Amino acid sequence: MMENDSSVDIASINEKIEKESAFVDLLTREMNKVIVGQKHMVERLLIGLLGQGHILLEGVPGLAKTLAINTLSQAVHGSFSRIQFTPDLLPADVVGTMIYNMKVNDFSIKKGPIFANFVLADEINRAPAKVQSALLEAMQEKQVTIGDETFRLDKPFLVMATQNPVEQEGTYPLPEAQVDRFMLKTVINYPQMAEEHLIIRANLKGAFEKVNPVVDLEQILRAQSAVREVYMDEKIEKYILDIVFATRTPEKYNLEDIKPLISFGASPRGSINLATASKCYAFLKRRGYVIPEDVRAVVHDVLRHRIGITYEAEAENITSEDLINKIVNEIEVP
């Protein structure tokens, strides 16, 4: 546990974070040239990037999911690759493979699209488990093994996977253990009417502004280590633990009514990611310390895919979102 005493110089941490986070406004402004609205999605992408996590986006087609990560990679001056997941995709199509080279009479390694700073795994639930696990190993270990050679992936490394919630035919739902590896699961909704009006205009004109690289990878790596320095008080740590433990043993938190609705609660990865995402959110707000509002801002994205709901909950049309709302409203804010 962190020492909660005067030895922590909040003022100097705040100063440092303010300096290191100066690029956030630049980056957001650059992305907003192309992405209309979708502030929540852009913010979550930055949290994933700063927290060295990955993000799972769920939304109907045409909501600029692909465009968002492509724009981010242009604004950050990083490499981008897109993998369209299909039922006939093979692990080698993602990570790479060994090819026989007749000239030298030996095998040479051809690296796959996973070797990029920003990887878009489009419609991840369309590919079989074998391919999903090849991608998830790279996400977790930040390395790839081809033949008997292991390659480290470049930093920063962000995977944004998308899922289409509408069509379920011919899809392979991600197993719980694999979904848990995503730091955030963000659900995207349709834009507002005024925003969609702007989208139509921009598309009809064909006049999209050019996205310029405003941040280099070095700055992102510095920001990733600065995020770790954001101060989190012991009371906030306790608040995070209370929220996560309420998903496992709701009866201890005066939430007996939701016990039959939860089949399993959030894992320790949930606690770690909730703490990290809260720090990232504070960083985006250019603050050197975490407040309870930061935790509440990210709690849905961190936990919605980590709480299993029972058949009883499904029968009553209760989602993991509803359960998180009940928990957050019940647990005392420090």
TrEMBL record:
Instruction: Give GO terms: molecular function aspect only.
Output: ATP binding; ATP hydrolysis activity
Entry-linked Gene3D superfamilies: Magnesium chelatase subunit I, C-Terminal domain, P-loop containing nucleotide triphosphate hydrolases
Q: Extract the signal peptide range.
A: none
Q: Does the keyword Nucleotide-binding apply?
A: yes
Query: Could you tell me the keywords of this UniProt record?
Result: ATP-binding, Nucleotide-binding
SUPFAM superfamilies assigned = P-loop containing nucleoside triphosphate hydrolases
Which ranges carry the ATPase AAA-3 domain?
54-184
All copies of domain ChlI/MoxR AAA lid, residue ranges: 259-327
Pfam families linked: AAA_3, AAA_lid_2
Q: Which family does it belong to?
A: Belongs to the MoxR family.
Protein name as catalogued: MoxR family ATPase
